[in-house]
Specification:
With 350 residues, the chain is mainly α. The protein contains twelve helices and six strands. It has a two-stranded antiparallel sheet. It is globular.
Length: 350
């Protein structure tokens, strides 16, 4: 019997490894159950509770809820403070130095012009109606966009507002209202971005990016001009071994940072801001050019994805893929941003 058991055990490894591999493949491909998610959540909660006091956790959660899940003016104030600090540094330091170096006045005043335009569109983005759906305009909004029956289905009702949901609309939990052609809720303007204020938000983002990039260019040109005028790049220094070395880029940046710390710090900040805003602006322009919203782009790959093995659906059901049925060419899509479709329906109704 022992010999038979040993022989069976010698024949087992290959078959056993195949079965284990199959079980691992099935385990990797299956959906995680709600019980496992709750168990992991409980374990993480216990670990966090052991490290961080519970009172501090509650305070942080309340703060995050207040900042990101309620309408408040915190980020508006932060936006204005940061903008004021950057422009104050530009005015007191760079503007005066550049005048001494005989920079063009039109070139130096460009950031102020962009600031004025930016503040106008910032205020419009904050206070304008994004396209709130009410009982009075519900039927009007229902006629604007076609239902694709994948992401937006007919005869759907908002459980909070008790209103029929037009295509491309969404209920904002922060503002507690349904918004027509909902894009996203922006904490920086403390408002939803929808059909009626998307143009203001796009121009606000464009002018903010342009002002940050312009200020970065002016500051960089000033520092380069300063180095050229003073012949600083031709200077030498003595290293630790007593040898004369030509000033390199790293040493030059260190010297400028020690001489003009606030200007170099501001330059680094506006360069980083220009890249971040530029990337987001490109994404927003892409959405506008293809007639999509941030909400639709985010949900698009998740709406009945036929390539996703984890989506639970009846075996007989055919997979439905979300397609953008609202795009009608570049100029038509951009015209819809700056002249929302609801305006035409309102004129016909009147």
């Amino acid at each position: 019997m022992c010999q038979a058991h040993a022989a069976a055990r010698e024949e087992m490894p290959f078959e056993f490894s195949v079965n284990v591999g199959r079980r691992n493949a099935r385990a990797a491909g299956r959906k995680v159950s709600k019980r496992e998610i709750r168990r992991l959540g409980t374990l993480n909660h216990l670990i966090i509770s052991y490290i961080i006091p519970e009172c501090l956790q509650r305070a942080v959660l309340k703060l995050l809820h207040y900042l990101f899940h309620t309408r408040n003016h915190t980020f508006i104030l932060l936006h204005l403070i940061l903008q004021g600090m950057v422009y104050s540094e530009y005015t007191w330091e760079i503007f005066d130095y550049c005048q001494e170096l005989e920079f063009s006045l039109h070139y130096l005043l460009l950031p102020y012009l962009l600031l004025i335009v930016n503040l106008v569109f910032f205020i419009l983005s904050c206070v304008s109606n994004p396209g709130t759906i009410t009982k009075a305009n519900e039927l009007l909004f229902l006629q604007v966009y076609e239902f694709d029956e994948v992401m937006f289905s007919k005869n759907m009702k908002c459980s909070t507002c008790n209103l029929r949901k037009p295509a491309r609309s969404k209920h904002c939990s922060v503002c507690n209202r349904c918004v027509h052609r909902f894009d996203h809720h922006c904490v920086w303007v403390n408002n939803c971005i929808g059909a009626w204020n998307a143009r203001y938000f796009l121009l606000y983002l464009l002018t903010l990016t342009a002002s940050a990039a312009t200020m970065a260019v002016v500051s960089s040109v000033f520092l380069v001009q300063l180095v050229v005028v003073s012949d600083l790049y031709l200077e030498t220094y003595v290293d630790d071994l007593g040898h004369f070395q030509v000033i390199d880029i790293v040493f030059l940046i260190q010297y400028l940072f020690l001489t003009f710390p606030r200007i170099v710090f501001m330059l680094g900040f506006v360069i980083m801001l220009s890249f971040l805003l530029g990337g987001y602006l490109c994404f927003t322009l892409y959405l506008a050019a293809t007639n999509q919203t941030t909400n639709e782009w985010y949900r698009g790959d998740r709406a009945w994805c036929q390539h996703c093995p984890h989506v639970a659906r009846p075996p007989s059901a055919e997979p439905r893929v979300h397609r953008n049925i609202h795009s009608h060419g570049l100029w038509s899509n951009l015209r819809e941003i700056f002249l929302p479709a609801t305006a035409h329906y309102e004129r016909k109704k009147n």
